[in-house]
Amino acid sequence: MDSPWFPFNHQVSTCKERFFCFPYGGGNPQFYRAWQNKMPQGIEIVPVQLPGRGMRFHEQNIDSVDQLIEILAREILHYLDRPFFFFGHSFGSLISYELASFLHDQYQKQPNHLFVSGYHAPHLPDPNPPIYHLPDDQFIDEVIAKNGMPKEILAQREYLDVFLPCLRADFTAAETYQHKKRKLLTCPITIFGGKDDHEADFEHLEAWKELTTGAFEKILFPGDHFFIHSAENELIDTIVNRLRFKRSHSS
User: Is 93 a catalytic residue?
Assistant: First the structure.
């Protein structure tokens, strides 16, 4: 069941549950691998590797959410033979939600819990003007201005140039996305936000509750849009507590 979309999974036959992690715009999901060390026994972290970055650097980027979800759904179905969870940050939240909705509609499958982070509810208009169409220099300046990439990458302009194609593809996909009205999810949704994140304010985070008939929870951490790194330990601990609670109430 090897797939370039899930190159880091190593417990295909032994894990009891899978926890799929989707990267933010232009990001490489490899940093999620370290989360495995904190997961409850039997839960496998499965970072999702999009084309055009990391070990798939030479593949064509996908700049359409609809196209991305259609391909990803076919790939992930083979791995949904046991309970699973989704986590996404920023653009990864949009992917994880759309994939969960598509699977719910087409295959009557959905994650046991959808964890999303640092992104406005997809059915609301994007609060920010589009920048995907701008010339390279202007596009990068706007990404920097809106804190759209970790500071470590933005500090090295020549390094950022390598990420430009996948970053632009992800911004294009997010900014041209149009929400389709589908039946509501029934799984719980937890939305995480940064207290100083101006990309997703209280209203945009709170509106995620309108996308499920299940439980909803909003949790804020200190930090800006990339609290996923600055508050990583607190974030992981919070997720793990939810997973353990769910286990204790399902056994």
Answer: no
